[in-house]
Amino acid sequence: MSSVVQPIIWAADHLQLLDQRLLPQEVRMLACRSAAEVARAIHDMAVRGAPAIGIAAAYGLVLDAQQGRDYQAAEQVLAESRPTAVNLRWALERMRAVAPRSADALLAEAEAIHQEDLAQNLRMGALGAALLPAGAVVLTHCNTGALATGGHGTALGVIRSAHAAGKLKFAYNTETRPWLQGARLTAFELAQEGIPGKLLADGAAAHLMKSEKIDWVIVGADRIAANGDTANKIGTYALALAAKAHGAKFMVVAPSGTFDLHCPDGGHIPIEERSAAELTEFRGAPVAPLGYAAYNPVFDVTPASLIDAIVCEHGVIERPDAAKIAALLG
Ligand SMILES: CSC[C@@H](O)[C@@H](O)C(=O)COP(=O)(O)O
Q: Is 50 annotated as a binding residue?
């Protein structure tokens, strides 16, 4: 288990969330006492990363059940907090199946979701690391580590496992504009673990791949459609195109809860757009002319044809397509 501070802690009558908006300068927990407060924390990105969003939402339902509040209203406010990460809906559906819906039974299920996520990540870490050559140089995007999950991480979990196995030479990570999950969070996790890494501007990635041999680009996912098309943090698609052009392999690492088999292809995945201010301002200070419009989609879709391998806890799907995904998960 990683030494990185825990992002989600159940505290008997409230949920403690590590406020990821403040990292790396400040490590401060945010106390949530209702589903609505958890939904606000998800929407405002105090907690983020697809698996972590699902885990937090599950605990949010427990909070309202403890207070005797309406279950459906709690479920709705959580479901509407962010649109792209299907892990949120997956966790809510799993919680809905709990019978009887007592606070204790819901808590047991939320804790199971939380613990299973860590176990899945450790499994994916081993499977993904096995794909890497000895002395691998990799590039990752966004933050997919312990901060984004129940522990260890997905794509960053593969990097952690490869480092532990002595297979990793170096991990580059993008800053991940505009929210800087890479600069603020992934660099924080890599530094804490002593994994050799270097930060680069998103726009430097294609140049890096042309200048130096990158063995694998390794990313997480917010939703994988039935045909393998994958939604992930904005900029992932550009990395996949650059990887194809420069001979780097492209790996997606995500648990089975990130697959949406009802979604036939990437064209059906809802893509979240966030406020213009995330681009036109930096920490409240304007970086563009006042009132200037901005286009701020925060996810994009990488077509399955650009993906060499999807790693999930059930196994590795090489050159993914609908039949291979259905065979592993169906
Ligand atoms: C294990 S996290 C996988 C994805 O959720 C991650 O790559 C990502 O895109 C996170 O986006 P975010 O907007 O920070 O929630």
A: yes
Residue with the smallest CA separation from ligand 1 atom 11 is 49
pTM: 0.97
Residue 5's pLDDT is 77
Percent of the chain with pLDDT over 90: 98
Contact (CB, 8 A) for 143 and 189: yes
- Which band of pLDDT confidence, cut at 50, 70 and 90, is reported for residue 87? very high
Which residues are CB-neighbours of 175 under 8 A, at least 6 positions away? 182, 183, 199, 200, 201, 202
Last residue of a domain, one of 74, 92, 118: 118
State the complex-level ipTM.
0.99
List residues near ligand 1 (CB under 6 A).
48-51, 85, 142, 144, 148-149, 154, 181, 220-222, 232-233, 298
Judge whether residue 3 has pLDDT over 80.
no
Is 45 in the same domain as 159? no
Answer with the one of 82, 97, 118 that is the final residue of a domain: 118
CA distances in angstroms from 319 to 132, 141, 264, 306, 307, listed in the order given: 16, 20, 17, 8, 6
Q: For residue 154, which atom of ligand 1 is closest to its CA?
A: 1
Distance 151 CA to ligand 1 centre (A): 14
Average of per-residue pLDDT values in the chain: 97
- What is the set of active-site residues? 222
